[in-house]
Design a protein that fits this description.
The chain is mostly beta strands and 481 residues long. The protein has 1 helix and 20 strands. It has an 18-stranded antiparallel beta barrel. Strand 16 (368-379) and strand 17 (383-394) form a beta hairpin. The two termini are 37 Å apart. The relative contact order is 0.12.
Length: 481
């Protein structure tokens, strides 16, 4: 009840602030409310690579997101809702969890074609320091870092951020209590009873070049099934305490307007901690827990990238990422990400955000090695396009590669996961509709049409029974009123 009381108090204060801002309209021409319209067409062919029934998506969806924003002095508040109607289970939200499956037998996380949601609701105070880029924010909010590989999600959090010309810092605590969607009654098992503490600091040591540190700690004290108990898609498979520590360096690599002729990023992450996990097996056609074991985790990940700006329109680049594999029976050396990541960013140097590990494959940096080559193009403020090639391998041929966009079973002894080509093309128009104060909260410009597509060719690790090709493609139309 204390949590609900805090959320209720925060919402009450927020709506009071919103109501109290109406007299300020005469002093500021910016809007305090609006609505985003997004139309999405999706075509997806067999995310299970033809090995099971279902897995296809072909349909259209409409996504309406009303928002309201208010400010009084150093206080501000924001709320963003969502109403979705579609002809199939269409993914209108790029932050949607990969575990949502329309063919699942578990109704608690079985998405529906039509639903209502509350995406964000928070109260913000900007008066702790005299710097304009400092905020303390409480409520369900977007927590995100530039490359999306640590944090990029909507979650209930208390988050302090500090952003100046020479220094950036973040410190926060977060826990997911609900999906705030009418069609989802349960959290994903990895989110249940899991608390997060996170922080980051970086400094601009010379113009356009940043170095920094990141840290993340998660504590999971949820219930694991006992040996012999039945397991379903909502059962936890591991609990424990994990700590991520990261070093990073970049030259504004995720800023599409960077003036640097050469952009780079380099991230090195260590993972340590302790986990309790279960092994699974099938007995009498039932999936059950067969064993329980604990282990000390010691793993690492690397992400490197380089982008050359040929001229004002053309850019080319390459990247390499590696997340360590299991190495033994208890997976103690297998890297996993924080669970709050989206892996989406502007790594190709244009405004359109792409999945770092494939629009179709959507890999996680766990027992995974990825080599990437890309080129991008932009024309003034009107168009941008990115063409990306990925090659995927797993490091430990007896371990999985985490949850992602492909759900087919892997065969032991094979490293080659496959390769993919992505194309993302965007046409922007109708500049200036969106108030400047909202640029922090909403990713895109006022109106656009975008094609996002990935064509994945499975490798030997998926076996001979897998389809030869799999695709995932979207056409998005976005208009902000």
């Amino acid at each position: 009840m204390k949590l609900k009381q805090w959320i209720g108090t925060g919402l009450g204060l927020g709506f009071s602030l919103m109501a109290g801002t109406s007299p300020l309209a005469a002093d500021a021409p910016e809007k305090n409310f609006g609505i985003d319209l997004k139309l999405t067409g999706q075509s997806e062919d067999d995310r299970d690579l033809g090995t099971r029934e279902g897995g296809d998506v072909n349909g259209f969806g409409i996504d309406l997101r009303p928002w309201v924003y208010g400010q009084r002095g150093q206080w501000s508040a924001f709320a963003l809702g969502q109403a979705v109607a579609s002809t199939d289970i269409v993914e209108t939200d790029t932050l949607e969890s990969n575990d949502l499956d329309a063919d699942s037998d578990n109704g608690g996380r079985q998405p529906e074609k039509n639903y209502l949601a509350l995406r964000e609701f928070w109260v913000d105070y900007a008066g702790l320091t005299p710097y304009p880029g400092e905020h303390l924010r409480f409520g369900r909010q977007r927590v995100r870092n530039d490359d999306g590989t640590w944090w990029d999600t909507n979650i209930e959090a208390l988050h302090w951020s500090f952003d100046t010309t020479l220094l950036r810092a973040d410190l926060g605590a977060a826990q997911r209590f609900s999906e705030y969607r009418t069609d989802l009654d349960e959290l994903a098992p990895q989110d249940k009873d899991r608390q997060h503490l996170f922080g980051a600091v970086s400094t601009q040591w010379t113009p356009g070049h940043w170095v920094g540190l990141k840290g993340h700690y998660s504590h999971d004290d949820g219930h694991l099934p006992k040996v012999g108990e039945r397991i379903d898609d909502l059962s936890k498979t591991y609990t424990g305490d994990l700590t991520w520590l990261g070093l990073e360096a970049s030259s504004d690599a995720f800023n599409p307007r960077s003036p640097q002729p050469l952009n780079y990023w380099a991230n090195l992450t260590w993972l340590t901690g302790q986990t309790d996990a279960i092994s699974q097996g099938v007995i009498d056609d039932r999936r059950v827990a067969t064993d329980r074991h604990d282990s000390d985790v010691n793993a690492w990940a690397l992400d490197l990238g380089l982008r050359w700006n040929l001229d004002e329109q053309w850019k080319v680049g390459g990247a390499y990422a590696r997340g360590s594999g299991g190495g033994d029976e208890d997976n103690s050396k297998q890297f996993v990400q924080t669970g709050l990541e989206s892996n989406r960013s502007n790594f190709t140097g244009v405004e359109s955000r792409l999945h770092r590990f494939g629009e179709a494959f959507r890999g996680e940096l766990s027992n995974l090695q990825v080599a990437t080559a890309f080129t991008s193009w932009n024309l003034r403020e009107d168009y941008d396009a990115s063409l990306v090639y990925h090659r995927f391998w797993r490091l430990d041929t007896d371990q999985g590669v985490g949850d992602g966009g492909i759900t087919a079973t892997l065969e032991d002894g094979e490293k080659d996961l496959g390769q993919e080509v992505d194309l993302v093309v965007t046409k922007y128009f109708k500049q200036g509709l969106l108030p400047a104060s909202m640029s922090e909260h909403l990713d895109e410009r006022s109106a656009l049409v975008r094609f996002r597509g990935g064509l994945f060719k499975p490798g030997d690790a998926y076996g001979k029974q897998a389809d030869s090709l799999m695709h995932r493609a979207f056409v998005d139309f976005i208009w902000r009123f």
